[in-house]
Each structure stands twice: as structure tokens, then as C-alpha cells.
Amino acid sequence: MTPLRLASPRFLRWLWGWLAGLATCLALSGASAAPFVIETRLLGRPLSAAQKASVQEAAARVAALIQSPYEPVRVDLPADSCEEGLPRLNETVKRFFVFVVVKNLDEDLYGSAQPCELHDGSFLPIYGVVDLNARGLNELSREDLLDTVMHELLHALGVGTLWTAESRVSIGGQSDDRSFVRREGKTWLYTAPRALAAYRALGGQGSGIPLDPDAGHWAGKTVCAEILSGEAGEYSGRVNPVSPLTLAALEDLGYRVNVGTAAPFQLPRPGQGCAAQRSAAGTGAAPNMPAGGFTSCAQARAAGVPTPIRRGQPGYRPELDGDGDGLACETPGR
Ligand SMILES: [Zn+2]
């Protein structure tokens, strides 16, 4: 299991930019025309309607990254396969699905996830499981729940969980000796070609992408705020971006991806740390901003502008800053 650790206060109310075009794509991805669909099967404690909607949205957003067709496969697995408490599976699986289980986990976790059974040949997961921590779930903002579920769904698809040769054994017993990671001294490095190329294109140096000690997340100091950052818990109150690194990591696993669905992303410059990345991201051109600026916070959010918008950043207007404290659109949903 690869957990997302919750390590920090959640006061940062940053909603990372998602391009409006992507949002449109996502809204459509539940339709039958979508080439890749993530079905969610809810188990455990019931979710509220709003939480269910967030889980669905996270599934749609992650599915929109992928273009691969799913290869239908017949499975007959006893109960408790993959994880204790899961039901028996006796069906032809026609699309990727995840069990989303709401239960008590360790207090410092938002959730955890893993792929369950891999296709013969492609070594892509047949299905997966995402556990969400019932403790504290109701206190999670919409953005934090979205961010958490997206992060865990990526693990369920194999990102960070199928990077070692030992993990790459198919349902029929085939094994794949490829390892995507290598240990160099005390550091784990990601070395599979697509994500490594994306890393270099962003100015990253060295023979691999530094990983966290669990070898399943980008090192927090390397990427700072990113959906698969080892320090994702430091960047709460927002949906962290799916960078070109993570999109390319899906490609390394063998998924065909929808090119252009990665979020605009910068690595922190050497020696400058994560604060510099955050302010750089915040001062970038606001995508899809009308010439006269946004007329409402809803419009700004729909265009993918991170909120709150600070005075001096594109999109800031005094009219959107009711209390005049230099932060516009600081109330979620308004
Ligand atoms: Zn994780």
C-alpha cells in the first residue's frame, strides 16, 4: 500500500488551475464515447452526495488523462482478494474499476491505494482498490478530497505502485523484469524513459527523477506541489497539478495518454525551494482570462485560476476582494 501522508495544516486555499478545456473534457468523460473510463464501486461507510460527486469527478479527471482502450478480461476471484473485506469477483471486467472503501485508517493518512491483478501481456491493472480514511473525511474540503482521490487513483492505475520488477506479475503468472526505479546510494531514482524525458524537458538534471524513500512518489523537494509529490500533504486546500512527469509516468506503464492534458508546471529552480515555485505559479498568465478580467470568482475558478487570487496577480480585482485584504475569492464556492 502506498499511503498519502497528511503532514500539515490545511489553511492554504489554493485551487490549482485546470484548463477550462480539460474541464469540458472531464464533464464528457462519463459518456460512452470516452475511450477510458474509471468505474467506482463504493464500499464501507456511506459517503455524502457531495463526497460521492467528488469521487466521481476525480475518477473522470484521471480517466481523461488516458486514451488506451481497456482489454476485457474474465476474472473469478474469491472474497478478500487484494484486500481484506473486498467481495468475490466473478465477472467479465469490461472497464477499469476501483473499489473505493471508506474505513478507519491510521490517523495521519488521507488514503491509500493499490492495483489488484494485472493483465497478461500489458501488465496494466485489471482493477484496483482505494481506501479513504473515514476519520477526518467529513472535514476534508472538496479540493482536498478531489486531490486525495486523484492521487490514490493514480496509484491504483500503477503509478508509484508498479515501478519495481517484483510488483509486475500478471494474473496468469507472467512476470516482467522491468524496473522503473533504481537505488543510487540512499536515493531512489525513477529511470523509465518517458517521465525522465519530461523531467529533463522541464530542466531537471541527473540520471533519474529523485523519489521519496518509499520509491512511489516524486521527491517532495524535487516537484514541490504536484499530484504525486511525496509532500502532497503540504499543499492542501487545492487540487495539485498533474504535471507532465506524472502523465509521462502513465505512458511508461504502457497507457496511451491524451497528450496536452498535463497541467502547466514548473520545477522549482535549483536552490530556490518550493516557495519560489508557488509564487511563480501564482504570477503566471491566467488562462482564459477575459480582456476586462473576471466578473466573478466562479468565472475565475471555471477558467482554472488558483484561488484566492492575490493582489498583483493576474485576475485580481478589488471588486472580488470583499474585505479588501488583498486576497480575492477567498471563500470557497463564491
Ligand atoms: Zn501516495
Automatic annotation (TrEMBL):
<dbReference type="InterPro" id="IPR008613">
    <property type="entry name" value="Excalibur_Ca-bd_domain"/>
</dbReference>
<feature type="region of interest" description="Disordered">
    <location>
        <begin position="306"/>
        <end position="334"/>
    </location>
</feature>
<dbReference type="Pfam" id="PF05901">
    <property type="entry name" value="Excalibur"/>
</dbReference>
<feature type="domain" description="Excalibur calcium-binding">
    <location>
        <begin position="293"/>
        <end position="330"/>
    </location>
</feature>
<protein>
    <submittedName>
        <fullName>Excalibur calcium-binding domain-containing protein</fullName>
    </submittedName>
</protein>
